[in-house]
Amino acid sequence: MYEGVVQDLIDELGRLPNIGPKSAQRIAFHLLQADPVDVKRLAETLLKVKETVRFCEVCGNVAAAERCRICLDPRRDASVLCVVEESKDVVAIEKTREFRGRYHVLGGALSPIEGIGPDELRVRELMARLADGVVTELILATDPNMEGEATASFLARMVKPLTADGSLRVTRLASGLPVGGDLEYADEVTLGRAFAGRRKIDG
Amino acid sequence: MRLSHLSLVDFRSYAGLELELEPGVCVLVGPNGHGKTNVVEAVGYLATHGSHRVAQDQPLVRIGAQRAVIRAAVHHEDRSVLLELEINPGRANRARVNRNAVGKTRDALGYLRTVLFAPEDLALVKGDPAVRRQFLDELLVARTPRFAAVRADYERALKQRNALLRSAAQLRRANRGAAVDMTTLDLWDGHLASAGAHLLAARLELVESLNPLVGKAYGTIAGRDTALLDYKPSFELSTGGGSPVDESAVHDALIAALNAGRKDEIERGMTLVGPHRDELALLLDHGHGPVPAKAYASHGESWSFALSAKLAAFELLRAEAIEPVLILDDVFAELDNSRRGQLAQVAASAEQVLITAAVEEDVPASLSGMRYRIGKGTAERLR
Question: What region holds the Toprim domain (chain A) (predicted)?
């Protein structure tokens, strides 16, 4: 245990995700030895981020204004909507440059253990966005784990009435073998899914 | 499968132990409390990454030491593998295979297989149903490692579903019995039923394969009467018997049971049917029809039944895939002379069997092979 405010700093850092007591201590001492100007800038950025950053009123992604960069971009295809759990998933998909549609960030996945039900996710907002019929394809890109799958099935059920007349197509991201990997190193679940989702090849 | 060398560092009572092992029988003799069981516990831990005696890892590390290391050379047919496991209580264990670190410790599983029988296994007959379900599930994983993931999926779905039912129960009380929106419950029912049906169908097939082997082993050890296993699902299920079990029928039956019990489940806030509530009944037939061993068996019969179940597991794995190393901890003292001879025959047929005994005379002379005398933290080769 360190004295007073140093221990307070270690405790606060230790609350961050993936930061254990050892790492918290290392960061705290790094800050103690750092240039006061750098530390001040970090502290100000922390305050500023909480004050200024908000969530896009349309998609729920982090944004610097009322709407995020992607929702404001007229070149994005408004007919394709990709549903993800978190803002970081948007960043991951954006890196692929494959997707030119828009996003909807749910803010998590269904998980009764954590007290997250449909009301805690941005489901109502999603239904509102689909109401005008502009969106013709809904891509469910929640995580391929049990909670993500449950969320995807839940959403698929919710939008089912909209798909009846063929005006909305609902798809789920494929899961299977990693590119550039070796088949022999894939775990059984992944390999099993890859088999189930195999596709025709034209020769 | 067999071990040729076992080395322990700071494991239980051993600061350092080097043990050469030959194929066939290896008997460890020594007074109680001198560490015979520690040796076989280490072999079991290396195979399963868990102890048959304690749930926590701390007691496995010698007092005053930071970590324990188990190292063994494992041979199967003409291949040999050096397995190393470092036990770090409170932190992640580390494993190496042929001196190469593995990413996840569970990647080091499967190189060594064991079937271990110890006095603690009496709980298989006398203990809670959970002990018997665990016996089945561990054997399933040993046969087909994929079932570790199926089991984890089931546990996860069960936890989520129970959390949802619990919050529904609270909401109901708060709203004085008003209807609660349960649209998401169906989703968890689906996950629970698909993982549950997979697990349950596999358990049913396993019991079917085990039954003749259990009967045979019990006949060998107890000499009379018949023993059999009867899997009792926690819900109405008629599979019509036979193998393979129709998994989709199990799935539909489980869904039907969940639907039928929904009101009750919401009231009590927990999942009341499924593989986590099933029972594996151990039945003994003294000639007047089968009766539950838990209620009717004497101490000797219970003990023989538990040993028979483990021997049946050994025979099953041996017949199907890679023969495990058989470990018999303190078994001969419980048997009379003729039973000792019978068990010795089974043991002698194993590629390798590790046996512990407090009194050397308890081990039948017909079991030739290696002998070690275990002292406090030492092992001296007798022959």
Answer: 79-178
Predicted model pTM: 0.83
**Beta carbons of A121 and A66 less than 8 angstroms apart:** no
Name the H helices within chain A. Answer: 4-14, 21-33, 36-52, 69-72, 87-96, 123-130, 146-163, 188-196
Same domain, B105 and B134: no
Which of A111, A153, A188 has its CB closest to that of B160? A111
Segment B74-129, tens digit of pLDDT:
999 888 999 999 999 988 999 999 999 988 888 888 899 999 999 899 999 999 99
Please list every residue in chain A whose beta carbon sits closer than 8 Å to the beta carbon of residue B190: 153
> First-to-last CA distance in chain A?
68
Superfamily (CATH) of domain A4-52: RecR Domain 1 (1.10.8.420)
Taking the Cβ of residue A131 and every Cβ of chain B, the question of whether any pair is shorter than 8 Å is answered with no
Q: Mutate which of A113, A114, A121, A159 to test chain B, going by most B C-beta atoms within 10 A? A: A113
pLDDT per residue as tens digits for the range B241-289: 666 788 899 999 999 999 999 889 988 889 999 999 999 999 999 888 8
**CA B90 – CA B183 distance, rounded (Å):** 40
Kindly provide the ipTM of the predicted complex, given to two decimals: 0.74
What pLDDT is recorded for position A47? 92
Q: Which residues of A touch B154 (CB under 8 A)?
A: none
Question: Is B149–A189 a contact, with Cβ atoms under 8 angstroms apart?
Answer: yes
User: Chain B residues with CB inside 8 Å of A157's CB?
Assistant: 183
Query: Could you say which of B275, B304, B320 is where a domain stops?
Result: B320
> Tokens representing B348?
């002698």
Phi, then psi, of B151 in degrees rounded to 5: -65, -45
